[in-house]
Amino acid sequence: MLAAQSGTELRLALRNGEQLLLALLIPIVLLVGLTLLEVVPLPEPRVASVVPAVLALAVMSAAFTGQAIALGFDRRYGVVRRLAATALPRWLLVAGRLAAVLGLVAVQTVVLGALALTLGWRPQADGLGWAVLLVLLGCAAFGSLGILLGGSVRAEVVLAVANLIWFVLLFAGGIVIPAEQLPGPLGTVATWLPSGALAEGLRTALVDGQGPGTQPVLVLVGWAVLAAIVSVRTVKLR
Q1: 211: Cβ–Cβ under 8 A, 6 or more apart, which residues?
Q2: Higher-scoring residue by pLDDT: 170, 17
Q3: Is 140 in contact with 224 (CB distance < 8 Å)?
Q4: Cα Rg of the chain (Å, integer)
Q5: Of 23, 30, 108, 177, most Cβ neighbours within 10 A?
Q6: How many CB atoms are closer than 10 A to CB 89?
Q7: 22, 65 in Cβ contact below 8 A?
Q8: Per-residue b/e over 183-197, b at no fewer than 16 CB within 10 Å?
Q9: Is residue 11 very low, low, confident or very high in pLDDT (cuts 50, 70, 90)?
Q10: What is the pLDDT of residues 151-163, one digit of tens each?
């Protein structure tokens, strides 16, 4: 049942033009643009610094923004309520969506990784395991937040809020601009956001080949647990 549900969710996501725009096209454009154009000051080779940021953006786009918008409109059109009336238990509906997110992130990682290799990216092998762990934790944190947002407010509000949060975290959440380069308190705040924790952790793992330390891991786990607890109390089927 879980395989059937997650497979359906993944196929629907891959057929959705807006989902693909967020999940693949924008990260690809940023990967190529930030690598070839000196828009943001980055150490050489630029691609080594760009890949962690783009991977963090891809996870946020798939697990949070796309998830929240899809769930919001599924609620609006009664899809979730109809599924809840079937033999599928509620936890399996949520698990199916999260499993579909993992599948989408796997597709993103393969596509972006292959493109980055053609641009000259050579990741530190010692940090690949840490990078996989961080991506999984990022999916859990952003996925829980996406379900919280998409399952709590009206679809039209979800669409506006999810896209606004996406833009804010992209430029001020430690993704495109590293937290240490953000002005004053904004840099400190970024390290405690899931976007900043994921991006900084991936930079440490893939650029330096080292473990990310305890703070990024605890931040991602904390956001995932907190969002999951609040979601249980606030998510609605309609």
Answers
A1: 127, 130, 204, 205
A2: 170
A3: yes
A4: 17
A5: 23
A6: 11
A7: yes
A8: eeeebeebbbbbbbb
A9: confident
A10: 888 888 898 999 8
- Cβ contacts of residue 70 below 8 Å, gap of 6+? 12, 13, 16, 19, 150
Joined tokens for residue 55: 């991977």
Six-digit token string for 70: 């899809």
Q: How many angstroms from the chain centroid is the CA of residue 205?
A: 17
Q: In this predicted model, what pLDDT tens digit does every residue of 86-120 receive, in sequence order?
A: 766 767 777 777 888 888 899 899 999 999 999 99
If DSSP codes are grouped into helix, strand and coil, which group holds residue 179?
helix
**Residue 214, both tokens:** 């305890």
Q: How many residues does the chain have?
A: 238
Q: How far is CA 113 from CA 30, 98, 117, 134, in A?
A: 13, 22, 6, 16
d(CA 166, CA 132): 22
Give backbone dihedrals phi and psi of 177, rounded to 5 degrees, phi first.
-105, 120
Helix residue ranges, H only, the chain: 2-15, 17-20, 26-36, 46-60, 67-76, 79-84, 90-118, 128-150, 155-172, 184-191, 194-208, 214-234
Q: DSSP letter at 121?
A: -
- Give the position of tokens 């833009």: 167
Q: What CA–CA distance (Å, rounded) separates 159 from 235?
A: 16
